[in-house]
Amino acid sequence: MATIFTRIVEGEIPSYKIAESEDFYAFLDINPLAKGHTLVIPKREVDYILDVEDNLYKEFFLFAKKVGRAIESVIPCKRIGLIVFGLDVPHAHIHLIPINKASDMSFESPKLALEKEEFEEIALAIRNAFEKL
Ligand code: 5GP
User: Which residues are catalytic?
Assistant: First the structure.
């Protein structure tokens, strides 16, 4: 059965899209730790990130780097933190999280409850920034 992220890529489940290439897709995390918290995934399903083949792995991180640059140009923060868990959704994904301190990346912290309009506004701003890079 397809993962929830494959269903997002295929448009079967809606997402706040940030960017897309032939091989990768980036979209806002629905339970964000911070405004602009984004997930980057390979379109082709691979569960464990260390199983991504070398060429794609490199491209994956380069794509995530560009998405991170777009996020930091829009969301005020000290850094974009990158983290990989993959314990919930069996489809490799990199979390990109705007942070000011290490604890901003704690998944124990409460998530932000954003309105649809806020998600749309954030996604549009980051998408526009990405397209200018
Ligand atoms: P992980 O697998 O890295 O532990 O966590 C999965 C992440 O995917 C979580 O941060 C969760 O909020 C996010 N997530 C799970 N389902 C969806 C979904 O349907 N849409 C979006 N945009 N994010 C999701």
Answer: 93
Cα-to-centroid distance, 93 and ligand 1 (Å)? 9
Residues 23/46, Cβ–Cβ less than 8 Å: no
Rounded CA-CA distance 60/67 in Å is 11
For 52, the token pair is 């991504």
Counting residues of the chain whose pLDDT is more than 90, the rounded percentage is 99
CA atoms within 13 A on the CB side of 68: 18
Atom of ligand 1 nearest to the CA of 88: 2
pTM for this entry: 0.98
- Domains annotated for the chain, with CATH where assigned, are 4-132 (3.30.428.10)
- Here the contacts of 55-59 (C-beta below 8 Å, separation 24 or greater) are 56/23, 59/23, 59/24
